[in-house]
């Protein structure tokens, strides 16, 4: 059993009995897609809602709207049936209190909304989420069980 | 690694290091006055980093740190972080508010004291930067969080990520006598606006100029 790590603006896949993990989500969102029949999971750690206004080459794993389709096609190449996929998301916090009306400070909630929209477009049901608040999250998916463990400082462990 | 990562040459990185040196030098003097103890700083590090490498500077993305953060707008834009280990933050609070109990973590009073300390120190860092560059630099209201370094620093990285795939990190840690205090001034300037700093200082924008 190994643990596949997903960095910031990164995405990857893992299959049972492995785990897949991303550390220190703040306003970023971790998107997890899972096929419980094949016990295969994909995870993306997105930083921004949309690549729509970006010219030139983009890193698809950085944006919610580009990460979801790329992750789906990566999973399909492993034999996953897209209609079996379910999604869980975590993150989208606001680490520091709002000062001013800067969009950057509201990025967490905007990222969460963009993830939900991207999942809807891909036709993937959102099974569970742990989003918002003002705390960071480390997220680990166990491909064997489909359970997602979320660890936060001073808040213990939560399972979704 | 990507081409962008190597956009700055040794000369530019030396200038950024000097910015860290002057800024953090002033701030360390201020901290020394606040605590009444001699405090030295280490030689600053200035690097262009991938996003995922940034949190390693303060001990890894899962290390819990106490951080005062503010954004800078004006000619120079970016994020400024003053991060402390939990131990060091507690020591500082107890020095300023001796009656405060730290048993239940950081009280509102402790948070507010640390926020003010961070504000003063970042203020002296930025004042030094303004004097050096003569640029218009406006800091936002500071705020404080105690959390995983990865989650905290990503607030600054998200801002950069809208225009860039790398970060310029200017990091200065400081020492109390022999003991490293595990405190950092961490400056993440917006890569585009750093060019204004180079121009104001007469530094060519890349090595080949």
Question: How big is the Rg of chain B?
Answer: 17 Å
Q: Work out the oligomeric state of the chains in this entry.
A: heterodimer
- Outline of chain A: globular
Poorly predicted residue ranges of chain B: 1-5
Distance between the termini of chain A: 21 Å
- In what range is the share of β-strand residues of chain A? 35-45%
Q: Could you report the average pLDDT of chain A, rounded to the nearest whole number?
A: 92
Overall body shape of chain B: globular
Give the helix level of chain A as a range of percent: 10-25%
Structural class of chain B, please? alpha+beta
Radius of gyration of chain A: 15 Å
**What kind of sheet is the major sheet of chain A?**
5 strands, mixed
Strand content of chain B: 25-35%
Mean pLDDT of chain B: 82
Count interface residues per chain for the largest interface.
A-B, 30 and 29 residues
Number of strands of chain B: 8
The amount of helix of chain B comes to 40-55%
Helix-strand category of chain A: alpha+beta
Taking the alpha carbons of the first and last residues of chain B, their distance comes to: 23 Å
Total number of beta strands of chain A:
10
Order of helices and strands of chain A: EEEEEHEHEEEE
Notes on the structure:
The complex is a heterodimer of chains A (160) and B (209). Chain A is α+β, with helices and mostly antiparallel strands. Chain A is built from two helices and ten strands; from the N terminus they run E-E-E-E-E-H-E-H-E-E-E-E. Chain A has a five-stranded mixed β-sheet, with no helix packed on it. In chain A, strands 2-5-4-6-7 form a five-stranded mixed β-sheet, with helices on one face. In chain A, helix 1 (64-76) runs parallel beside helix 2 (107-122). Chain B has 209 residues and is an alpha+beta fold. Chain B is built from six helices and eight strands, in the order αββαββααββαββα. Chain B has helices spanning 10-35, 51-54, 86-96, 108-133, 149-161, 191-201, and strands at 40-41, 45-50, 64-74, 78-85, 137-139, 143-148, 166-176, 179-189. In chain B, strands 1, 2, 3, 4, 5, 6, 7 and 8 form an eight-stranded antiparallel β-sheet that branches. Chain A binds chain B through residues 7-10, 23-28, 47-48, 59, 62, 93, 95-97, 99-100, 102, 104, 107, 134-138, 153-154, and chain B through 51-52, 55, 61-62, 64, 69, 71, 105, 140-141, 143-152, 154-155, 157-159, 161-162, 165.
């Amino acid at each position: 059993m190994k643990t596949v790590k997903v960095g910031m603006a990164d995405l990857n896949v893992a299959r049972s009995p492995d785990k897949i993990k991303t550390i220190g989500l703040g306003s970023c969102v971790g998107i997890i897609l899972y096929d419980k029949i094949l016990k295969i999971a994909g995870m993306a750690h997105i930083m921004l809602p949309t690549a729509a206004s970006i010219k030139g080459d983009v890193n698809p794993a950085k944006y919610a709207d580009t990460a979801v389709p790329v992750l789906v096609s990566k999973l399909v190449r492993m034999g996953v049936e897209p209609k079996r996929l379910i999604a869980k998301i975590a993150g989208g916090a606001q680490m520091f209190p709002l000062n001013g009306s800067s969009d950057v400070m509201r990025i967490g909630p905007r990222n969460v909304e963009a993830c939900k929209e991207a999942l809807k477009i891909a036709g993937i049901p959102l099974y569970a989420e742990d989003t918002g608040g003002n705390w960071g999250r480390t997220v680990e998916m166990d491909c064997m069980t489909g359970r997602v463990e979320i660890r936060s400082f001073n808040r213990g462990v939560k399972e979704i | 690694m990507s081409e962008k990562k190597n956009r700055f040459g040794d000369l530019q990185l030396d200038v950024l290091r000097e910015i860290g040196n002057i800024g953090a030098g002033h701030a360390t003097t201020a901290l020394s006055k606040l605590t009444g103890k001699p405090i030295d700083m280490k030689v600053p590090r200035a690097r262009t980093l991938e996003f995922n490498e940034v949190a390693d500077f303060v001990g890894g993305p899962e290390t819990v740190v106490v951080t005062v953060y503010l954004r800078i707008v004006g000619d120079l834009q970016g994020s400024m972080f003053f991060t402390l280990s939990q131990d060091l933050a507690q020591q500082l609070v107890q020095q300023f508010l001796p009656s405060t109990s730290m048993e239940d973590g950081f009280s509102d009073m402790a948070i507010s004291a640390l926020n003010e300390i961070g504000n003063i120190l970042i203020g002296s860092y930025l004042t030094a930067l303004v004097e050096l560059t003569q640029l218009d630099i406006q800091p936002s209201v500071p705020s404080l969080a105690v959390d995983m370094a990865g989650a905290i620093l990503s607030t600054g990285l998200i801002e950069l990520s809208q225009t860039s795939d790398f970060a310029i990190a200017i990091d200065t840690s400081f020492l109390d006598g022999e003991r490293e205090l595990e405190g950092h001034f961490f400056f993440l300037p917006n890569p585009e606006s750093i060019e204004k700093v180079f121009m104001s200082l007469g530094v060519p924008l890349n090595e080949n100029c």
